[in-house]
User: Fold this.
Amino acid sequence: MSSIISAVLTLLALAILYRILQSNSSNPINIPYPPSPKGIFLTQNLLDIPKPRAWFTYTSWKKQYGNLIFLRVLGQNILVLHSRKDAIALFEKRSRIYSDRPQFPAVDMMGWDFNSADLNTPTNGESTVNYTNSSFVPH
Assistant:
């Protein structure tokens, strides 16, 4: 019986340690997030995410928290936008800042970095089409 208790206490201590380390690494300079419903310690906002008729819940949250709502579900950050204007500003006008493809170091190490599906947004003002076309021209 005591081994079960010690195993449960060990798992609980590891979960708490993981949560503390994860919360410190996700926002290292402590920029405040938009308002959100208060989450539970380990599951965060998992139980707050509505399943049926979600639009009713999101509409009530808009009245309570404003146009931007921040949720965290099992370590995944979710930003809910209620305004078309905000969505256009973030996803179209600032897409160069907020959108990019994930980096896979193993792909670069294996020499597969030529794959055009994995191209990130070119940072030097060059369009992706020009970048891709220049890859096929012999140097």
User: Anything to note?
Assistant: The CA atoms of residues 24 and 30 lie 9 Å apart. The helical segments are 2-26, 54-65, 84-93, 95-98, 105-109, 128-136.
